[in-house]
């Protein structure tokens, strides 16, 4: 069961944004997230807003979904082209990144994914060198599908590997054969796509040897990017119920720390450097700002506070300090769009203090770190004691801290939440 949507103010039926959203927009990228809420089987640990196709009726199922999503893209085009926003300084922006997530986006025919991408392209345009990613399960694509995705304009595919150990995959309710990964990666490479693989550590019953096997299998694929996330057992999921009944043990924090340290060791040795606490990219090429060229630029736009429009049921969006979220159920989502109404269920306008808190919470997780007082190269008086304590505890690097920039050490990455609390209390 997906988590409940947050509370917020009631958004207008036409989705119009306040003029304040235009402030500073010329300095922010625009991205688009396309949510495909369908899975063949719902995994026991997952609390994303996903459905099996059999649960849904006409207008909301996979067969009609691309048309429904295109309606929201059309609505978004009108909202962002509001003359009031243009007069307040919001330029027409090409889309810098597109990310198709889910669910399992590749449950849709490639032709539908291509139509959705074409909708983004024809509505806003794609920036030169735009990053266009789709998630995929290893058993949901073949060589022809990957070649067709590349021909449609996708540049990157993120495979849900999760583990190389069949028993671990079974606990997670993952249905793919791990032996298929080398094939799908080879096919993606042949199509000219960048390749990312997603791993999960801390599954109940997973040993340290199991995790090493997964890491070794992942680096043997020679991916451009690896995401390694600690399993979080969410209330309302099948796994949450299994843990509550004592059928599965709750993941252990110390075990998770050991597995993160092992990931750092194995991935770094394979030439993959961390650029965000849970994300590693090939370190052999960097952009002008020092970010690995194969980092997920779409996810970086979230962590750096840029603008994005989230299309789909339950999708979240953010433009200029205005955040909103769509109705969760695909049937309600489709109905509202058929009526010409925004599918937004609620929204909030972020106050300056909240935006600063989120800047620190998200930015501190990046290898580039976060400036405590942007543009000054100094530590604000109110944070001097906290910074000194964090240096003393070995949680942040000494030299950047002297210049007012917080950069996590390896130990700091394990305790990133504690660093944020120290800087914001």
TrEMBL record:
<dbReference type="Pfam" id="PF04055">
    <property type="entry name" value="Radical_SAM"/>
</dbReference>
<dbReference type="InterPro" id="IPR034505">
    <property type="entry name" value="Coproporphyrinogen-III_oxidase"/>
</dbReference>
<keyword id="KW-0408">Iron</keyword>
<feature type="domain" description="Radical SAM core">
    <location>
        <begin position="24"/>
        <end position="276"/>
    </location>
</feature>
<keyword id="KW-0963">Cytoplasm</keyword>
<dbReference type="GO" id="GO:0051539">
    <property type="term" value="F:4 iron, 4 sulfur cluster binding"/>
</dbReference>
<keyword id="KW-0479">Metal-binding</keyword>
<comment type="similarity">
    <text>Belongs to the anaerobic coproporphyrinogen-III oxidase family. HemW subfamily.</text>
</comment>
<dbReference type="InterPro" id="IPR004559">
    <property type="entry name" value="HemW-like"/>
</dbReference>
<dbReference type="GO" id="GO:0006779">
    <property type="term" value="P:porphyrin-containing compound biosynthetic process"/>
</dbReference>
<comment type="function">
    <text>Probably acts as a heme chaperone, transferring heme to an unknown acceptor. Binds one molecule of heme per monomer, possibly covalently. Binds 1 [4Fe-4S] cluster. The cluster is coordinated with 3 cysteines and an exchangeable S-adenosyl-L-methionine.</text>
</comment>
<keyword id="KW-0411">Iron-sulfur</keyword>
<dbReference type="GO" id="GO:0004109">
    <property type="term" value="F:coproporphyrinogen oxidase activity"/>
</dbReference>
<dbReference type="InterPro" id="IPR013785">
    <property type="entry name" value="Aldolase_TIM"/>
</dbReference>
<dbReference type="InterPro" id="IPR058240">
    <property type="entry name" value="rSAM_sf"/>
</dbReference>
<dbReference type="InterPro" id="IPR006638">
    <property type="entry name" value="Elp3/MiaA/NifB-like_rSAM"/>
</dbReference>
<protein>
    <recommendedName>
        <fullName>Heme chaperone HemW</fullName>
    </recommendedName>
</protein>
<dbReference type="GO" id="GO:0005737">
    <property type="term" value="C:cytoplasm"/>
</dbReference>
<keyword id="KW-0949">S-adenosyl-L-methionine</keyword>
<dbReference type="InterPro" id="IPR007197">
    <property type="entry name" value="rSAM"/>
</dbReference>
<keyword id="KW-0143">Chaperone</keyword>
<keyword id="KW-0349">Heme</keyword>
<keyword id="KW-0004">4Fe-4S</keyword>
<dbReference type="GO" id="GO:0046872">
    <property type="term" value="F:metal ion binding"/>
</dbReference>
């Amino acid at each position: 069961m997906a988590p409940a949507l947050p509370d917020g103010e009631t958004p207008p039926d036409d989705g119009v944004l306040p003029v304040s959203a235009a402030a500073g927009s010329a300095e922010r990228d625009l991205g688009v997230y396309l949510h495909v809420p369908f899975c063949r089987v719902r995994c026991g640990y997952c609390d994303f807003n996903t459905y099996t196709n059999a649960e849904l009726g006409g207008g909301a199922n996979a067969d009609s979904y691309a048309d429904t999503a295109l309606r929201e893209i059309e609505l978004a085009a009108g909202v962002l082209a509001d003359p009031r926003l243009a007069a307040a300084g919001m330029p027409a922006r090409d889309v810098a990144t597109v990310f198709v997530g889910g669910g399992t986006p590749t449950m849709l025919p490639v032709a539908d994914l291509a139509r959705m991408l074409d909708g983004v392209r024809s509505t806003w345009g794609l920036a030169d060198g735009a990053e266009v990613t789709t998630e995929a399960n290893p058993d949901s694509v073949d060589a022809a599908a990957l070649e067709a995705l590349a021909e449609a304009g996708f540049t990157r595919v993120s495979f849900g590997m999760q583990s190389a150990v069949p028993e671990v995959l079974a606990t997670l309710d993952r249905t793919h054969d791990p032996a298929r990964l080398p094939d799908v990666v080879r096919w993606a490479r042949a199509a000219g796509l960048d390749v990312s693989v997603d791993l999960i550590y801390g599954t109940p019953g997973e040993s340290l040897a199991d995790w090493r096997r997964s890491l070794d299998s992942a680096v043997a694929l020679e991916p451009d990017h690896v995401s390694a996330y600690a399993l979080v057992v969410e209330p309302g999921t099948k796994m949450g119920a299994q843990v509550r009944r004592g059928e599965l043990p709750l993941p252990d924090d110390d075990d998770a720390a050991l597995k993160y340290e092992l990931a750092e060791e194995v991935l770094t040795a394979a030439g993959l450097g961390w650029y965000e606490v849970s994300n590693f990219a090939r370190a052999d090429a960097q952009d002008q700002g020092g970010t690995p060229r194969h980092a997920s630029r779409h996810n970086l736009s979230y962590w750096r506070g840029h603008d994005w429009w989230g299309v789909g049921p339950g999708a979240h969006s953010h433009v200029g300090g205005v955040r909103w979220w769509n109705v969760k159920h695909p049937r309600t989502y489709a109905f509202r769009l058929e009526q010409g109404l925004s599918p937004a269920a609620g929204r909030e306008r972020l106050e300056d203090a909240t935006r600063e808190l989120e800047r620190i919470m998200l930015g501190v997780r990046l290898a580039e770190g976060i400036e405590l007082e942007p543009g000054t190269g100094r530590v604000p008086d109110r944070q001097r004691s906290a910074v000194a304590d964090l240096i003393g505890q070995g949680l942040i690097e000494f030299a950047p801290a002297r210049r007012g920039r917080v950069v996590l050490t390896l130990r700091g990455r394990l305790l990133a939440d504690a660093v944020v609390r120290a800087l914001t209390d």
